[in-house]
Amino acid sequence: MMENRAIYQPEHEQFRTSVRRFFAEELMPNIEGWEEDGIIPRRLWKKAGEMGLLCPTVGPEYGGPGGDFLYLCVVDEELGYTGQASFTIQTHTDIVAAYIEALGTEEQKQRWLPRMVTGELIGAIAMTEPHAGSDLKAITTTARRDGEEYVISGSKTFITNGINADLIIVVAKTAPELGRKGVSLIVVEAERAGFARGKRLKKIGMKASDTAELFFDDVRVPASNLLGAENAGFTQVMSEIPKERLSIATIAMASAQKAFDLTVAYAKERMIFGKPLMEFQNTQFKLAELKTQLTVGWAHLDHCIARHVQGKLTSDEAAIAKLFNTELQCRVVDECLQLHGGWGYMVETPIARMYTDARVRRIAGGSSEVMKMLIARTL
Fold first, then answer.
1. Does this model's pTM top 0.90?
2. Is 244 an active-site residue?
3. 297 within a domain of the structure (yes/no)
4. Is residue 202 part of a domain?
């Protein structure tokens, strides 16, 4: 399902081959140890940068290959298809670098993007707060203007790449009295005085992804670290988040396909009551249903990717893709685990890891319930 699709050209498929090889050789043999450590080592980020996997859409003037959006989709798909998505390239590339590409000044792009391409700088975005979730109107982190600096105070939680991050886009209130119209995006470098990382948060899945609390105690950054226009952060996030949700839908779709493919192979080999599991009608019907749903999911995903490339993807279309594909991923993985029987519940089996990793997709980037609200507004 992932290869030989109409939206991709031969050069994209050549890139796919090298991406798949990189993950097979560099990520998968080491992932169990990194899950125990709770973090992906920086050396993998730098190797990924050397192979052109980080920020593939960044232009040559900033050290990148200047590929189109489809190269980014290939990386997301291949990462999802490993069945191990704890290497959070997506946050670094699809979100942080994308914000800088879209909103950054020439000076900001020159300062940050080349080192993000190489993996020297690892990016994170700090939206979520302990009591506000991802509701930007309710955040309490502030950025007070003081001469030619912003003074940032507050805390964030559930921040992907929180331990590794060198560069954090912080969502803060620059005019708290204006509510959501007083939100700005400000870049904070990790070496700034007053910035601190909290403990690494332990999760039920995505265990090699470093997720942390971040604290800002009167952190001073130059006013030139403002990303885009002051007090325009809410609008900026709303304009960028459809692409983020499309990326989540993409990685979810590939992960679901991986679970299915693994289970088909398992059902052909697993003997029960003297014959392969695949020969039972229940198994055949279950897998037939899943194949049907996956086929429809891929067709709709390709439609949305093409819409984005054309500059036509709407917020509700991205919400539909995110809702459908993340719910599909969880449904497929659950059915596939069931077909694995007792072995599916064992930590060492790939399907067990995929089961726990999948659950966050229905929450991150806007929960399924929020997606339904967005879709419902168009009715």
1. yes
2. yes
3. yes
4. yes
